[in-house]
Write a structure and sequence with these properties.
Layout: H1 6-9, H2 13-16, H3 21-26, E1 28-35, E2 40-44, E3 47-53, E4 67-71, E5 76-80, E6 86-90, E7 98-103, E8 107-113, H4 120-132, E9 136-142, H5 150-158, E10 165-168, H6 176-180, E11 189-193, H7 200-208, E12 232-235, E13 241-244, H8 257-263, H9 265-271, H10 288-294, H11 300-343
Helix pairs in contact: 4-8
Length: 344
């Protein structure tokens, strides 16, 4: 890795404003490149730093892409700075918590293929996560060179958002980096999301000049096998950064109500004009959404997917709230028991 400056790593006034004068004099800002079970590795102006975590900080609370303050001589991570953006997803409901994926992203390349992998419902899920995190989404459709009519896939994808950027590429072509260059400039951070086998690793290699392991597609279902096992930060030659993430299966949503509304603007905006505030957009009189469907202005399938995501998000959000409440009550019980033990 070449010698780095903070600006090259993506540093901005947003992070600088969080530092105290004493911290400026004694600590070094670093950007997290990998997270291990008991330590992290960060990049800084001093070079690569391998850091242990101070008490009160767990690796579960640190994401690739985070900015942290480090005491380099002691190899310690002292503080995690507030994130500009945070990409996370709902986990299995029985866990009761969301899973942190990456921090301080500028752009999320949502990948699919011009074949049987293409699924508008899955793309909408990724869009909801990106919109909720205030991360710019760009849909990248691979295998355009293997499809008789790639424009039909592009047209379907463009209908999933206003001013939504959609690219159709050959992931193995020589011009991949050129297509994605507008989002990969100095200090910019990008990541790929999408099902396995659509070419994310191949594109990542094209952007970074790396040689990550790729695996072939299974012919029976157009899907591939996972090739990435951990998240990591990689430098892009033209100045940006790539957070490499594993393929995501069973993508869940939780606490992303804003993101869902932003993904379906034609529905969420009309909903504000319904006669009833709690309108379910089914048979209620004065429903602006149903009226728009009757006029051919809203796709009824979009409404079905919108309502499905809303229901799932509500259930997952309530589950997370209940889990957090249980953790709080358990913590109070433990503290109370310890206090009684000390008094006895």
């Amino acid at each position: 890795m070449t010698e780095l400056t903070r600006d090259a790593l993506g540093w901005s006034p947003f992070y600088m404003s969080q530092l105290e004068i004493e911290e400026l004099e004694t600590l070094t800002p670093a950007r997290i490149g990998t997270v291990h079970r008991d330590r992290v590795v960060g990049f800084s102006e001093l070079g690569t730093l391998e850091l242990t975590l101070d008490p009160g900080i767990t690796t579960a609370a640190v994401a690739v892409g985070d900015w942290v303050l480090a005491a380099p001589e002691q190899h310690r991570l002292v503080r995690v700075l507030d994130r500009k953006t945070e990409l996370s997803r709902g986990t299995e409901y029985h866990t009761g918590e969301k899973q942190l994926i990456a921090a301080n992203l500028d752009t999320l390349f949502i990948t699919s293929s011009c074949n049987n992998d293409f699924n508008v419902a899955r793309l909408e899920r990724y869009l909801a996560l990106a919109h909720d995190a205030m991360i710019t989404p760009v849909i990248v459709l691979t295998k355009a060179d293997q499809c008789d009519d790639p424009d039909s896939y592009v047209d379907q994808a463009r209908k999933l958002g206003r001013d939504l950027e959609v690219l159709a590429i050959n992931a193995k072509g020589d011009d991949v980096a050129e297509h994605l260059a507008p989002w990969c400039g100095k200090g910019q951070t990008v990541a790929f999301a999408g099902s396995s086998g659509v070419g994310k690793t191949t594109i990542a290699n094209a952007l970074t000049g790396g040689a990550a392991l790729t695996q072939d597609i299974r012919e029976d279902d157009a899907r591939g096998r996972h090739t990435t096992t951990g998240r990591s930060l990689h430098q892009i030659p033209i100045g940006g950064w790539l957070i490499d993430t594993p393929g995501m299966r069973g993508l869940g949503v939780a606490e992303v109500a804003y993101g869902i509304d932003a993904t379906f603007p034609e529905i969420s905006e009309l909903a504000t004009h319904c006669k009833f505030r709690d309108c379910e957009h089914e048979t209620e009189p004065g429903c602006a959404v149903i009226a728009a469907i009757d006029e051919g202005e809203v796709d009824p399938d979009r409404l079905k997917r919108f309502k499905k995501l809303k229901r799932e998000n509500q259930h997952a959000t309530e589950t997370i709230a209940q889990s957090r409440d249980r953790h709080r009550k358990f913590g109070k019980m433990v503290k109370s028991a310890m206090s009684k033990k000390k008094r006895s």
